[in-house]
Amino acid sequence: MKKQFLKLMTEYKLIPLTVDIIIERDAKILMIRRCGDTFNNYLAFPGGFVDYGETVEHAAIREAKEEVNIDIVPRHILGVYSDSNRDPRGHVISVAFVCDFEGDPLAGDDAGSFEWIPLDSELEFAFDHGKIFNDYKNWKQNAGTYWSSK
Question: What angle do CA 93, 114, 82 make, to 5 degrees?
Fold first, then answer.
């Protein structure tokens, strides 16, 4: 079985996995201003890459602590976003979580700053986070689960 797995791992190109964290307070969504090479100074949901051996839930908890210094509890999966063009660095899949939180945000890691964005905003976001933002607004009205092609 191990040999079959190793053969599988060398024959197929693996796609990186990330998490995006949706946190709402007073009809506003917590977003970060990215600092770095990709989408520098654009608004994005807090989140990041899942480490090897880590669950997506634990990655969301870790990333929330690293990027905005808050403790979260993932409550719902909004959706899975897998469009191969969602990230200019390459094909990356993301699981978007709707979370409860405790604490006062403080920017850290690759978050240059953070902002509370009103739900009725129409702004330009990093990656496909505009789609995720709109899907979240629809989810609040209609529930459901979303994905790249829905």
Answer: 10
| Spatial distance between the Cα atoms of 97 and 20, rounded to a whole number of angstroms | 6
Report d(CA 96, CA 146) in Å as an integer: 9
Q: Within the chain, where are the H helices?
A: 2-11, 56-68, 129-142
Q: pTM of the prediction?
A: 0.88
CATH number of domain containing 123: 3.90.79.10
Residue for token digits 């995720």?
A: 132
Q: Would you say residue 68 lies in a domain?
A: yes
Mean predicted lDDT score pLDDT of the chain: 90
Give 117's strand partners: 29
Asked whether 146 and 79 are in contact (CB, 8 A), the reply is yes
Within-domain flag for 37? yes
Query: What does the pLDDT read at residue 119?
Result: 95
Q: Which domain holds residue 134?
A: 14-147
**Does 88 fall in a domain?**
yes
